[in-house]
Amino acid sequence: MDSICSIDKSCAAQISSLLQPPPPLQVQEYFEKLIPTRECHGITIKQNGDFGKGVFAKSEFKEGELILKDQMLVGIQHASNRMECFVCSYCFKFIGSIELQMGRRLYFQNIIGPASSNNGCGASTSSRGHCSDTDSSEEEDFNFPEKETIPLPDGVVESLMDGGLVLPYSDKFPLPTVISCPGGCDEAHYCSKSCADADWEFFHSLLCTGEKSESLSREALSNFIQHAVETNDIFLLAAKAISSTVLRYRKLKTTYFEKLEKHKSSDVLDRSNLLLEAWKPISIGYKKRWWDCVTVPDDVDDEMKFRMQIKELAFTSLQLLKAAIFDKDCEALFSLEIYGHIIGMFELNNLDLVVASPVQDYFSYIDDLPPPQKEKVEKITRPLLDALGDDYSVCCEGSAFYTLQSCMNHSCCPNAEAFKREEDRDGRATILCLRPICKGEEITISYIDEDLPFDERQALLADYGFKCKCPKCVQEEDPQ
Q: Starting at the edge strand that comes first in sequence, how are the strands of the sheet with 72-77 ordered?
C-alpha cells in the first residue's frame, strides 16, 4: 500500500533510523537499568534466538510466587469504563470514596439509561497475556447493560456524590482523595499530587484540554479525542506514546543548551540524535504496522480493502493529532509509518489493564457481618445494591503496554501468568508463577486460551507472526 502521508517521504531517513531495532548491547543495557526500578525478583532479559527478547529466571521460583510487578509505559482506561469506575488517570487506583463510586455509577446509569456497551471499532485492541479481545462496532456507546432498575428516593444519589450520605463501615475501605488535573481539564483526576505531577510531565501537559494545556489547539485536541472515542481508543495510547517522546525530547534539548551555556560552547545541536534518545523507551518494543498485523474479522470478504480502510482510519486520527500537538523538531513522529508501527506495537503487545473495585469488598464485608448487625445495616445498603444491580462492582478496565512484561514469550504450557491478587490495587502488571521455575529457565505466559484445540491455537498465534513450537504443540502436531 502506497504512502498517503507526505512526512513519510520528507523524513524517510529519520523514520528508518527510528524504526531500526536497537543493537543488542544497547537493549541489554536498557533493561539492566530498568529492572532495578521495578518490583521484581531474580529475572533478566536475554536475546532469545528466533523469538527476539525473552525473560529468564536468575533464581528459582515457587508456585504462586510473585515474579514481576511492572509499571506500564503507557496505559488508558477504556472510554466506556470511565463512568463506571472513577480512578487515578496515572496509576488507575480507585479514588474518592465508596459512596462516590456508587453515586457516580448510579448517576450515569440514571441519565443515560440501559443499553449495551463496547470498546471501539475498526479493529480489536489486542490483549497479549489475556484471552479477550475487544468487540468491533460502528461507534462507542457509553451505556450500561440492560436490566430492571429499582429507583432510589430523591436526593440519595446526590448525597452519595457530595458526601452528605456516609454509609455504615465505609471507613474501613478508605480511598485516596481526588486530586484535580493541574491543567484544569475535567477528564483527568488523580490519587495524589505525585501522580498528577508525573502524568503532567510524561504525557498530559500535551494532551490536556484545560486552560493550562501545552497543546497547539485545545479544540483540535478535543476533535482527536472524540474521534478516538468513536472509533478505537488505541489511538489514545498512540497519542500518549508520541506526546511522551516529544516531552522527553524537549527536556533533553533544554539540558543540552544548558550544558552549552555552561561551557560557552558553540556546538551545533544534532536534533536527530536527541530524538533517537527520546524515542528509546518506544524503540525497545516489537513493532509491525497496524494495518499489516491487525486480525481480519471472519465476516470480511476483501482483506486488502479492510487493511486499506484501517490504514486510512489511522491517517485520519494522525491528522487530528498533528493539528493538536505537532512539533517541527519531532516531525518524523507524525509520519503515518511511525504512527502505524506504534499502534502495531500495542496491537501485538498490550495487556488488559484490570483493577478490582473496592465496592465489591464493601458489600462482601456487609454480607459477612453477624446477623443482627447485618440486618440493621442492610436497611441502608440493600436499596443501593438493588439499584446498582448484578453488575454492582465493575472493575476498572483498559489497555496498557508494559515494557518488561512485553518481553515474555508465549507458550501453550506456560510457567507464569498475568494475574491480579487481592492486594494488587493499581494498574501495574502482576506476573505470578504457575509452577516451580528453575534458575536459567525462560519465563513464559500464554497470549491465548491454551486449552483450545491445536489448530485453533496455531491460527490465533499466526496473528502474532509465529508458529508455536512449545512442547504441547510439538506433541499435538505429531502425537507419534
A: 72-77, 396-402, 351-355
CA distance 283 to 207: 22
Whether the predicted pLDDT of 102 surpasses 80: yes
Mean pLDDT (whole number) for 281-303: 92
Confidence check: pLDDT of 381 > 80: yes
The three three-digit cell numbers of residue 53, written as one number: 527478547
The alpha-helical segments, DSSP class H, found in 131-214 are 156-162, 193-199, 205-207
List residues bridging with 416 in a β-sheet.
433
User: How many CA atoms are closer than 13 Å to the CA of 190, on its beta-carbon side?
Assistant: 18
Bridge pairing between strands 66-70 and 429-433 = antiparallel
Residue 54 has which C-alpha cell?
A: 525473552
Pick from 309, 304, 311: nearest CA to 289: 311
User: Among candidates 34, 40, 67, which has minimal Cα distance to 414?
Assistant: 67
Cβ atoms of 170 and 362 within 8 Å: the answer is yes
- Is the per-residue pLDDT at 70 higher than 80? yes
Residue closest to 253 by CA, chosen among 232, 275, 237, 238: 275
> Which residues pair with residue 52 across a beta bridge?
none
pLDDT tens column, 137-172: 333 444 444 545 567 888 999 999 999 999 999 999
Alpha helices of 284-370 — where are they, by DSSP H? Answer: 290-293, 303-325, 336-349, 358-367
User: Which set of grid coordinates corresponds to residue 354?
Assistant: 484490570
**Nine-digit cell at 68?**
514481576
Q: Does pLDDT of 116 surpass 60?
A: no
Would you call 103 exposed, middle or buried from its count of C-beta atoms within 10 A (0-12, 13-18, 19+)?
buried
Cβ count within 10 A of residue 221: 23
DSSP class of residue 329 equals: G
- How far is it, in rounded angstroms, from Cα 125 to Cα 334? 21
What letter would DSSP give residue 448? Answer: S
Helix, strand, or coil here: 421? coil
Provide the strand spans (E) within 178-290. Answer: 179-180, 189-190
Query: Around Cβ 118, how many Cβ atoms within 10 Å?
Result: 17
- SS3 at position 67: strand
3-class secondary structure, 194: helix
Q: Identify residue 372 by its one-letter amino acid code.
A: P
Residue linked to cell 527520546: 278
Q: Which three cell numbers stand for residue 459?
A: 491460527
| CA pair distance 108, 121, nearest whole angstrom | 23
For residues 276 and 283, give the distance between their C-alpha atoms in angstroms, rounded to a whole number.
Answer: 9
For 100-250, strand residue ranges (E) read 179-180, 189-190
